[in-house]
Design goal:
- The complex is a heterodimer of chains A (236) and B (367).
- Chain A contains 6 helices and 10 strands, in the order βββαββαβαααβαβββ.
- With 236 residues, chain A is of the alpha/beta class.
- In chain A, helix 3 (104-113) packs across helix 4 (122-132) and helix 4 (122-132) crosses helix 5.
- The N and C termini of chain A lie close together (10 Å).
- By secondary structure, chain B is α+β, with helices and mostly antiparallel strands.
- Helix content of chain B is 54%, strand content 16%.
- Chain B has a 9-stranded mixed beta sheet, sandwiched between helices. In chain B, strands 2-9 form a two-stranded antiparallel ribbon.
- In chain B, helix 1 runs antiparallel to helix 11 and helix 9 runs antiparallel to helix 11 (327-358).
- The longest helix of chain B has 39 residues, at 224-262.
- Chain B starts with a helix and ends with a helix.
- The chains are: A alpha/beta (236), B alpha+beta (367).
Chain lengths: 236, 367
């Protein structure tokens, strides 16, 4: 097995001088293997999003090290860290994250703007991904013309445009109805099975645990692997 | 605002310089106590009713240090009268035998002196109906040329010789609604060229001392009260400009802070997608620069249009003349104005842009 993300002794405390300190993460050790579909659950405020942000270089740990794709991400420059995120990671956020002034196609191609490589197949790739999420017929539409569930599907397409190895999802279905949630999770299941992606998903919805190959529970900033978890097998 | 202030201050000073240059004298001799009146006549076309007896010209010529003394006569046309084809025209009669202001120009441009009935105009003198005839006090002049602009009333002045002015006076007695007074006995001022090496101030003092009814002013001091007035207006404008720029800076900084705050989540998303701190900083600074350029250009166009459209109103309100800049100068001033706008926008946007770019993406997304 190859490790995609590794956290060693990671802690994160908020607050400072004269303010009561709050420990969001406490000495976390975690290895996420390639092709894992890791589902992290826990109550609100237990540190799930903080863990995701620190693992992806979006937030700085108070102590500890984070290694992604063999790179210790807090020992490199901002430009290198941003480049690593751009090349290897795709993000699906809880909140609406499409740029309102761009069409769906432009939104999907946006990460390519921050890549230093030339992408001659950008438009066909965007079309292919919008097709994957069932929205290739709306490429010229603006985000406001779509429902929340459709927008979240476009975000998934955007997350995949750079052919990442790691897909990170923070409560991707929290604002959606059950039917739309099922559609979104089905897309996650498919791309995990077909594209052999490593997925790290944070959610408070326990019914989504079944989609993961592994399940982690978080309590007060500490993580605990669920040894009884029975999910789908990791793709070969 | 910056553009308007520079145009007004520079234009005011430039018009005074050109007016002094047009008069071409070292010393100007006027009736005692009438300096302001003569300045107003030459700069703004105000009517002047103070005259000197013609015999004074010989007295001035006799003062040591005086090389040439050339008399001039200032008249104004009658407004809205059937005897005049133009309204409120300022007239300036000179002695062709001694004149050193208009005569050199005539020789260079026309190659001949003005004949009886001929006149040259300032840059803004136009004959009505597209022909070259202008009728004043029932007398018809032929316009044979135009002088370069000065931004003063001299641009709306008709220049003629004394014989032509006397002929106009003669004709006015029968053909004008009101005849001109007998002009041959009077002059409005005497323009003096001093001998080479002579001190202008000393010559002016000598003239004033020798002839009780006159006051001699070195040309460099002429329009001094207007220069003071321009400086006063300039000081006020500079204060207003400084306050305006400071307020603009503060207002733009607030707008950029609000913009950064409103788009904080978008910035966080862009950073998550791979945008570097530099990309975010450049995006904000480029936006600020574009806003400054568009705003600056719109402001420059409006200011320029206002300057040209309301020039007369501005001159009347400020009490001094303004020489509007040439196209090349105007473009230069607009470029300077745009640079100022860019600098203000950059200063206002820099801190918010730096904060937006350096903030942790996770924090940006949470705000």
């Amino acid at each position: 097995m190859t490790t995609a993300v590794s956290l060693r002794g990671v802690s994160k405390a908020y607050g400072g001088e004269g303010v009561r300190t709050f420990a969001a993460l406490r000495d976390v050790d975690l290895d996420i293997e390639v092709n894992d579909f890791l589902v992290i659950t826990g109550r609100s405020g237990c540190g799930k999003t903080t863990l995701l942000n620190i693992a992806t270089g979006l937030a700085t740990p108070t102590s500890g090290t984070v290694t992604v794709d063999g790179v210790e991400i807090w020992s490199v420059s901002d430009a290198e860290r941003s480049g690593l995120r751009n090349r290897t990671m795709g993000f699906v956020f809880q909140f609406p994250s499409l740029l309102p002034g761009l069409s769906l196609e432009q939104n999907v191609m946006l990460p390519l703007e921050f890549s230093h490589e030339e992408h001659t197949d950008a438009r066909p790739r965007a079309q292919e991904l919008l097709d994957l999420v069932g929205l290739s017929h709306r490429m010229a539409a603006l985000p406001r013309e779509l429902s929340a569930g459709q927008q979240q599907r476009v975000v998934i397409a955007r997350a995949l445009i750079n052919r990442p190895t790691l897909l990170l999802a923070d409560e991707p279905s929290s604002d959606l109805d059950e039917e739309t949630e099922a559609e979104i999770m089905e897309i996650f299941r498919r791309i995990h099975a077909e594209q052999a992606l490593t997925i790290m998903m944070v959610t408070h919805a326990r019914q989504l645990v079944a989609f993961g190959t592994r399940h982690l529970e978080m309590v007060d900033g500490a993580v605990r692997e669920n040894p009884d978890h029975k999910g789908p097998a990791r793709p070969a | 605002m910056v553009l308007s202030t520079v145009v007004i201050s520079r234009g005011g000073q430039e018009s005074l310089r050109l007016a002094r240059q047009r008069l071409g004298a070292d010393v100007v001799v006027v009736p005692r106590g009438a300096v302001t009146g003569i300045e107003g006549a030459l700069l703004l076309g105000n009517a002047t009713n103070t005259y000197l007896p013609r015999g004074v010209v010989g007295n001035v010529q006799a003062v040591p240090g005086v090389a040439i003394a050339s008399p001039q006569l200032y008249l104004t046309s009658m407004a809205n009268s059937s005897c005049c084809s133009v309204s409120l025209m300022f007239m300036y009669a000179f002695d062709p035998a001694t004149d050193f202001t208009i005569e050199p120009w005539l020789k260079e441009k026309l190659g001949h002196d003005l004949a009886l009935g001929q006149a040259v105009g300032g840059s803004e003198v136009f004959a009505p109906d597209g022909n070259d005839k202008i009728k004043l006090y029932g007398y018809e002049f032929t316009l044979v040329g135009k002088l370069e602009p000065t931004g003063t009333n001299l641009d709306q002045t008709l220049f003629m010789t004394f014989p032509t002015a006397f002929e106009m006076e003669r004709v006015s007695q029968t053909k004008a609604k009101m005849g001109l007074p007998v002009l041959e006995s009077y002059v409005s001022s005497v323009m003096v060229k001093v001998n080479p090496g002579a001190d202008r101030t000393q010559v002016a003092e000598a003239i004033t001392k020798a002839i009780p009814e006159v006051q001699a002013v070195p040309a460099a001091e002429l329009f001094g009260s207007y220069g003071t007035q321009i400086s006063g207006v300039l000081r006020t404008l500079v204060v207003i400009v400084v306050l305006t720029v400071a307020l603009s800076l503060a207002l733009m900084a607030v707008v950029f802070w609000m913009s950064v705050h409103d788009r904080s989540r978008q910035i966080g998303v862009l950073r998550a997608l791979g945008a570097t701190q530099r990309v975010v900083l450049l995006a904000y600074m480029t936006e600020a620069a574009l806003l400054a350029l568009v705003g600056g250009l719109v402001g420059a166009v409006l200011a320029t249009a206002a300057m040209y459209l309301f020039h007369d109103l501005l001159v009347s309100a400020l009490g001094f003349t303004i020489m509007l800049p040439s196209l090349v100068s105007l473009v230069g001033l607009i470029v300077v104005g745009l640079i100022v706008a860019l600098a203000v926008a950059a200063a206002a946007a820099l801190v918010p842009a730096l904060r937006a770019s350096r903030q942790e993406p996770a924090v940006s997304m949470r705000e």
